[in-house]
Write a structure and sequence with these properties.
The protein is an all-beta fold. It contains one helix and 71 strands. The two termini are 43 Å apart.
């Protein structure tokens, strides 16, 4: 039996009720990672620490374990916490909160949490169990900001969530006195974008936590962001320390580099980027490395090149690396034949570019695990190689590429042509194939997407061969979104069941894959939105994967139809309550409209298989056009629809997917409208640019913050001396928000840094000779002539490195130098 040290203290008060219930009651959003405090649905690793809040959970006098092994049952009647029906070791318990360790045997995926008092169970809450998920402790105990302590060039951190150990140490226990238990997954560190030597071992004093030691790279700064990876997974990021204000650095550019029109920067390394001029007649992008660590701007040799001749920059990045890479051209033929068999790799730890030779010409450069590069080669068929960004070594991938979808080659599925033969002339895919697990894939196909008369659901094996098919119920057909006939390309990231993208190949695919489907992995049912042939009713139709049961039909309320007037119909997956939501209206729309309006939600309960209609408060309507309606932390939100306001709104409507209810958030009285709404999921906030009463200036009033969880709205006002503010980026590592403030007298702009916790504002002074930052507006034209077009923005915001790179422009609106801001 060991003595236990605690690294946390429960500070959550019980909810206020007139009469406390006798049974334990869980806050359905109250099961979160006890270290990161990530809003639900939260990620926690096997052996990680879980905080559960609610009412009547623990003993009135409280409990805190002082010895090990931790108990799995307390008091009389006994208190137990079960995760997927497995008892969890208990650290601490009060009536309002319990902290437990996730059992090591818990299956990965969505897990159900129940608190039991005697024979009475709470209703379940849910959490995502993953392996692993490094969860770093911070000085403020809130999962963000500075973490650990630095001494003698070493950073020492405490973390949970590194997964199973070798030798194995059971949940609720400490390692033996002479036993050094280390994570089974390899642990690595990244400090300010530079790989750093790291070691980890299970704490001998705190159950479920690890002691991590990181050797700091030379030149590490207090503001540097630290990421710890277990395998290739990183959790919350922290900073080395705390600076009182943001740090601004400036590098004037040589005259030759001031023609730059493209910028590529690492998401991990502050102050390391490449500027590029437009592509020249030789097929090269003249480029320069901007290296703040060495106060240098250097020309890049060897003709940086890319397959996309219209790219602003030829350089590509890896989200988990600080390197920049381009082909060393020029290209000698069509892009399909490859650009070059050589790469130029820029690394912040190396003073000179690294030259890498490929087996044959490459077509495309992308990221690979471990911070390396994946290069697609111009072979037939195309093949891949991996490039080690530290050594330059080239190797073949360890396993087959392609990932996640069945492929053609002799099977029934051919994604290139979006065809699969399910019989009866039903061949055209209309939804992204869904991985059903166990080597099976679900597909939805019709006879003619332009005029559907027959449809089937099919199950394919990994080779694409059809294993089974089922027709749609009589009179029902898949509800396909209308075709976008004109206007802007499809918004990215909203392809039902899979990735999306703006325009180009994926945009064209999205225009064909217009069905709305979702797979309930727990019940193994494939759900499809459908409309009857008479266009008098809509429904969710569910196909069970196993057996030959008839499809389940769950109609929407009479007179209620899916808001099907957008180029894609969104289904919102509510993880915490196992529900699916869709926006609805009163008309069976069949054409794209802007705005496409909805006045309610239809919510399918996957467990009960019932559909509930939930109206908006009052007579409200919201727009679902493009990405106007979206989801964050199992809240679905949208802004009111009013074409006369020119894409501006004055109200947010929210569906609480857990409470199965709606509410609205109105603006503070000094604000008339807002637009450009952006989510901050780490804090369950939305932020938009606010216009003042009686004014049409976007951002003239400042930035409006909508606190969804607390149902409040507040204003971050435009500071004195500025005409308007523009939202640029948010930085979860330190809970900051960056905006650009514009002035009229004298004309120019500056960066503004708001603290999202305190509301404090830092106005960052421009370097000498800089009037504009990031971009310049259209220059005034000569009398009788239109304004001169503005140059493209030269700016890069990296929330993962807590850094900002923007071009500084002089009063003449010409590039002058690069600005680096280290956000604190």
């Amino acid at each position: 039996m060991g003595t236990l040290r605690f690294g946390f203290t429960i500070g959550f008060a019980a909810l206020c009720w007139g009469q406390a219930p006798s049974a334990p009651v869980l806050n359905q959003r109250g099961a979160v990672n006890a270290v990161t405090l990530q809003p639900a649905p939260s990620n926690v690793a096997l052996g990680g620490l879980l905080l559960i809040t609610g009412i009547n959970l623990g003993p009135a006098a409280g409990f805190r374990a002082t010895t090990t092994p931790l108990p799995t049952s307390l008091e009389d009647p006994p208190l137990e916490v079960r995760i997927n029906n497995r008892p969890a070791p208990i650290f601490e318990a009060t009536p309002g909160a319990v902290t437990v360790q996730v059992p090591l045997e818990t299956p990965l995926g969505a897990a159900q949490i129940v608190v039991r008092r005697g024979t009475v169970n709470s209703a379940p809450a849910r959490v995502n169990v993953v392996a692993p998920f490094p969860s770093l402790r911070t000085a403020n105990g809130q999962g963000f900001g500075a973490g650990g302590s630095v001494e003698g060039g070493k950073l020492r951190l405490s973390a949970a969530g590194l997964g199973l150990t070798e030798p194995r140490v059971n949940a609720g226990e400490l390692p033996g006195a002479d036993e050094a238990a280390s994570p089974r997954q390899p642990v690595r560190a990244n400090v300010g974008g530079i790989a750093a030597e790291a070691s980890a071992k299970l704490s001998a004093a705190t159950v479920g936590e690890f002691d991590i030691e990181v050797t700091l790279p030379e030149g590490a700064k207090t503001s540097d962001v630290v990421a710890i990876y277990a395998g290739n997974t990183a959790g919350n990021r922290v900073t080395l320390g705390v600076e009182p204000t943001a740090v601004v650095e400036y590098l004037p550019l040589p005259e030759a580099a001031r023609v730059a029109r493209g910028l590529a920067a690492s998401d991990l390394r502050p102050g390391f980027l490449a500027l590029s001029a437009p592509r020249n007649g030789e097929g090269c992008w003249p480029s320069w490395v901007v290296d703040f660590a060495h106060s240098a701007v250097r020309e890049v040799p060897d003709c940086p090149a890319a397959a996309n001749q219209n790219a602003a920059s030829p350089f590509q990045t890896n989200p988990d690396s600080a390197v920049l890479a381009a082909f060393a051209g020029p290209a000698t033929g069509p892009a399909a034949q490859g650009v070059s068999d050589k790469l130029t790799v820029l690394h912040p730890a190396q003073s000179e570019p690294m030259a890498v030779t490929l087996p044959v010409r490459g077509i495309n450069i992308g990221g690979a695990p471990g911070g390396n590069l994946n290069v697609v080669l111009a072979t037939n068929p195309p093949s891949n190689v991996l490039v080690n960004t530290t050594t330059g070594a080239v190797s073949e991938p360890a396993g087959p590429g392609g990932g996640g979808q069945p492929g053609g080659g002799g099977g029934g599925l051919n994604l290139a042509n979006l065809q699969v033969d399910l019989g009866d002339e039903v061949k055209q895919l209309v939804a992204q194939p869904v991985n059903l697990g166990q080597g099976a894939f679900g597909v939805l196909a019709v006879d003619n997407a332009s005029a559907v008369t027959r449809a089937k659901f099919g199950v394919l094996n990994a080779a694409g061969a059809v294993q089974s098919t089922r027709p749609f119920p009589e009179t029902w057909l898949p509800l396909l979104a209308p075709v976008q006939t004109q206007g802007p390309g499809l918004p990215g990231g909203i392809l039902p069941g899979g990735p999306g993208g703006p325009g180009g190949g994926l945009g064209a695919v999205a225009a064909i894959l217009r069905g709305a489907t979702i797979f309930d992995g727990q019940a193994r049912v494939y759900w499809v939105l459908a409309r009857n042939a008479a266009k008098t009713a809509d429904a969710f139709i569910g196909f069970a994967i196993a057996g030959n049961a008839e499809p389940v039909i769950r109609r929407l309320a009479e007179g209620t139809f899916v808001a099907s007037c957008t180029a894609q119909t969104r289904l919102f997956n509510i993880d915490l309550s196992r529900r699916i939501a869709v926006s609805t209206g009163v008309t069976p729309e069949s054409e794209v409209k802007n705005p496409c309006s909805a006045n309610a939600f239809a919510v399918l309960d996957l467990a009960a298989r019932t559909v509930t209609a939930i109206n908006l408060p009052g007579q409200g309507e919201f727009s679902v056009s493009g990405n106007s309606a979206n989801e964050m932390s199992d809240y679905v939100y949208g802004t009111n629809a009013d074409p006369g306001r020119q894409n501006r709104s004055d109200t947010i409507y929210v569906l609480d997917g857990v409470g199965n209810s709606t509410f609205r958030l109105d603006l503070p009285p000094e604000i008339a409208t807002f637009n450009n709404l952006n989510p901050i999921p780490e804090m369950t906030l939305l932020v938009g640019q606010a216009s003042a009463q009686g004014s049409n200036v976007i951002g003239g009033a400042g930035l409006v913050i909508f606190d969804i969880e607390n149902q409040q709205a507040r204003l971050l006002p435009t500071p004195a001396g500025f005409a308007a503010v523009q939202l640029l980026a948010t930085f979860p590592v330190t809970r900051k928000l960056l905006a650009r403030g514009t002035r009229t007298d004298p004309a120019g702009s500056q960066l503004l840094l708001y603290d999202l916790v305190t509301g404090d504002l830092q106005i960052l002074a421009n370097p000498p000779g800089v009037s504009w930052v990031g971009q310049v507006p259209n220059a005034p034209g000569t009398p009788g002539q239109p304004p001169q077009p503005a140059a493209p923005p030269l700016q890069h915001f990296s929330p993962r490195s807590n850094a900002v790179h923007v071009m500084g422009y002089g009063a003449n609106r010409q590039p002058a130098g690069m600005i680096l801001v280290r956000v604190n």
